[in-house]
Recover the amino acids of this structure.
């Protein structure tokens, strides 16, 4: 169940909202005049979500490359990585 708070709470109960965001890996939805306006979350949650989005983008890019036939054998890839790392 999402946590929904009025915009006045952002000003009047910032500490409470901040503590909730740091204890829970979920945003607090802020309303303005009864309508959704903002999502507030901890930096840690933001970085987690952003990291997931970047991972999904890379996975999608990889799947697109597979579909278009742009692949190499895993042995060849590992040898290339070892060369670049100086092994």
């Amino acid at each position: 169940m999402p946590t929904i708070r009025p915009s006045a709470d952002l000003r009047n109960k910032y500490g409470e909202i901040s503590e909730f965001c740091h204890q829970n890996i979920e945003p607090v939805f802020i309303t303005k005049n009864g309508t959704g306006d903002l999502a507030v979350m901890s930096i840690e949650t933001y970085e987690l979500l952003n990291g997931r989005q970047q991972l999904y983008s890379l996975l999608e890019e990889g799947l697109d490359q597979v579909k278009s036939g742009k692949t190499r054998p895993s042995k060849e890839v590992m040898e290339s990585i070892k060369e670049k790392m100086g092994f």
